[in-house]
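Internal ticket #5521
Category: modeling
Description: The requester needs a full-assembly model to guide mutagenesis choices. All entity lines are attached below as received. Residue total reported by intake: 323.
Assigned to: D.W.
Attached entities:
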Amino acid sequence: MIELIKQPWSWYASGAAIAFIMVLLLFFGKTFGFSSNLRTMCTIAGAGKTTSFFDFDWKKQRWNLLFLIGSIMGGFISATFLKSDQPLQLSKATIADLQALGISFDGGLNPTAIYNWHYALSAKGFAVLLGAGLMIGFGSRYANGCTSGHAISGLSNLQLPSLWAVIGFFIGGLFMTHILFPLIFS
Amino acid sequence: MKGLKFIIAGIVFGIIMVKSEAASWYRIQEMFRFQSFHMYGVMGTAVVLGIIAVYLIKKFHLKDSQGHLILFHNKDKRWPKYIIGGIIFGLGWALAGSCPGPMFVNFGYGYLTMSIVILGALLGTYLYGVVKNKLPH
């Protein structure tokens, strides 16, 4: 069983597993949507005292925070017990494109060229990581959901607004990748 | 403990994000460069199975674990917020290589510098709440 989980997963097994999580939460009486946790965390930190958007009964989102805690544990368990012996099977074209931007492929999940403390605490690296997070947080609340809420839950329920959001995600992602990456990296 | 099932679901979700490589910065780049089918296959499969599951839940009026009918809500149809917010989200998604779920999964995986992205996401959410009423929706 462990060996089966350890090997890299096919796209169809991965997709089925994600759909399973969405359905599981429906049967728990909840809706899969991760970015709501960011709002809840602002509320817990006291943002509701000054801003009405955060003035809501966060205890109704307690389940989602527990899900978040679980997801951190899931990441830890994957790294500790379920790591595959093989490097990530990234396409050669992507490896070459990233190399040209000065980001070398190291076989892991994320590039150590970006996710290391030396870069993260440099002025530029800190701005890149904090700025990326700012856009994710601002954008997901503005669009009323992120990849889980729109691309998975929303599209599964045939919601046209979720399709608009996913189209927006792609416009932003393509612009960042093809226009801004050469300016930010290299 | 009543909340245990959510922690377990979260653990399974975290493992899925890692093993599907949806939590990989590299895979997100590969997707936005159209250089592999992998992420499109992952999302496409999830959505197709999700549509079938939601259809069946509605058709057979299935109930959740507390015995309540599983209900679905239609999202507000005014579209500018989805496009504008979506674009801003997409810019950050491609740069960080993680969306909100995977940024926490990656932190647990050992990418501790992801905490700066998480901090940014919290600040961004807060900023949205502050300026919300001044934005077109």
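Resolution: model delivered.
Comment from assignee: The first helix of chain A runs from residue 2 to 6.
Ticket closed.
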